[in-house]
TrEMBL record:
This is Transketolase. The keyword Metal-binding applies. Its cofactor is thiamine diphosphate. The keyword Cell inner membrane does not apply. It comes from the Bacteria. InterPro entries: THDP-binding, Transketolase_CS, Transketolase_N. It comes from Eubacterium ramulus. Its EC number is 2.2.1.1. Residues 13-265 form the Transketolase N-terminal domain. GO terms for molecular function: metal ion binding; transketolase activity. Belongs to the transketolase family. The gene is tktA. It is an enzyme of class 2 (transferase). Keywords: Metal-binding, Thiamine pyrophosphate, Transferase. It holds the Pfam family Transketolase_N.
Length: 278
C-alpha cells in the first residue's frame, strides 16, 4: 500500500473519530487524532489480521492500553472492514456495541478490553509471553499514552518484558505532550522517555508518529531486533487534523458541538480532496 493511500485512510479515520465523538456528545478526540497514522499503518500494513476471521489464533494482537482513545481504534477497525462505518454514530449509545472503552466480548477486532490506565500494556506483555511459550510466531503491539506511562504498572510490565527478552512485542508511546490536566512535563514528567525504556532493556526508536515513512522504518527495525522488546517513542500532535484541536489539552476529553463538528469535517474533507489531487 502506498503512502498516499495510507494518508487517505488516515483522513477517513479522523472523520470517523470526529463523527463518533460528536454523535456521543462525549469521548476523547485529542489523543485519538494524534494516533491516527499509527492505527492506520498497523492495521493496513504491519499486522497480520483478517476482518473475516477476527479470532484467528495465529493473528497478530493489538492492545490499546490508553483505552479512552477507543474512537481512533474503532474508526480504524471500521475502515478495515470489521464492522460498518455507520456503527461509529452509535458510539457510547445505549444498545450500541461501541462502548466508551474497548470491549473484547462485543466488538469484532478488539483483542483486549482496556481503559484502566496502565493495565493494557501488562495484557500485551502476557500475550507476547504466551506466543513464546506456545512456539507461535504472532506479534503483539500496544499503544500507551505519554501521560499513561506515569502509571507504575507500565514499568512493572516493561521490566518483565525486558527480562524475558520478548522480541515479539512492540510498544508505541504516543508522545503528544498533553494529558487531561495539561502538559505532561508539568503534571508528572516522564522524560526522558527513551532513556527509561532503554534502562528496562528495550530497543528504543524515536520517530515522528504522524509520518508514515518513519512509522514504517521503525516497525521494520523492530522486526529485525532480536532478544529484546521494542519501544517506539512517537512524537505526535494532539488533535492533529482539526485546526482548533491541535496542541490543545482542552480537547483531551471533550466533544465538538454542532458548529465545531461542521468545521472539523470540512477541514478533513478538504484534506482528503487535496490528497486526491496528488
Amino acid at each position: 500500500m502506498t503512502k498516499l493511500e495510507l494518508e487517505k485512510i488516515a483522513v477517513e479515520v479522523r472523520k470517523g473519530i470526529i463523527t463518533g465523538v460528536h454523535s456521543a456528545k462525549s469521548g476523547h478526540p485529542g489523543g485519538s487524532l494524534s494516533a491516527a497514522e499509527i492505527f492506520t499503518y498497523l492495521y493496513f500494513v504491519e499486522m497480520n489480521v483478517d476482518p473475516k476471521n477476527p479470532k484467528d489464533p495465529n493473528r497478530d494482537r493489538f492492545v490499546l492500553s490508553k483505552g479512552h482513545v477507543a474512537p481512533g481504534l474503532y474508526a480504524t477497525l471500521a475502515q478495515k472492514g470489521y464492522f460498518p462505518v455507520e456503527e461509529l454514530e452509535g458510539l457510547r449509545h445505549i444498545g450500541s456495541m461501541l462502548q466508551g472503552h474497548p470491549d473484547m466480548k462485543h466488538i469484532p477486532g478488539i483483542d483486549m478490553s482496556s481503559g484502566s490506565l496502565g493495565q493494557g500494556f501488562s495484557a500485551a506483555v502476557g500475550m507476547a509471553l504466551a506466543a513464546k511459550m506456545d512456539g507461535k510466531d504472532y506479534r503483539v503491539y500496544s499503544l500507551a499514552g505519554d501521560g499513561e506511562i506515569q502509571e507504575g504498572q507500565i514499568w512493572e510490565a516493561a521490566m518483565f518484558a525486558g527480562a524475558r527478552k520478548l522480541d515479539n512485542l512492540v510498544l508505541f508511546v504516543d508522545n503528544n505532550g498533553l494529558q487531561i490536566d495539561g502538559n505532561i512535563a508539568d503534571v508528572c514528567s516522564p522524560y526522558p522517555i527513551d532513556k527509561k525504556f532503554e534502562a528496562f532493556n528495550f530497543h528504543v526508536i524515536n520517530i515522528n508518529g504522524n509520518d508514515f515513512d518513519e512509522i514504517a522504518a521503525a516497525l521494520k527495525e523492530a522486526r529485525e531486533t532480536k532478544g529484546m522488546p521494542t519501544a517506539i517513542i512517537a512524537k505526535t500532535i494532539k488533535g492533529k487534523g482539526v485546526s482548533y484541536m491541535e496542541n490543545q489539552a482542552g480537547w483531551h476529553g471533550k466533544a465538538p458541538n454542532d458548529e465545531e463538528f461542521a468545521i472539523a469535517m470540512e477541514e478533513l474533507k478538504k484534506a482528503g480532496e487535496a490528497l486526491c489531487q496528488k
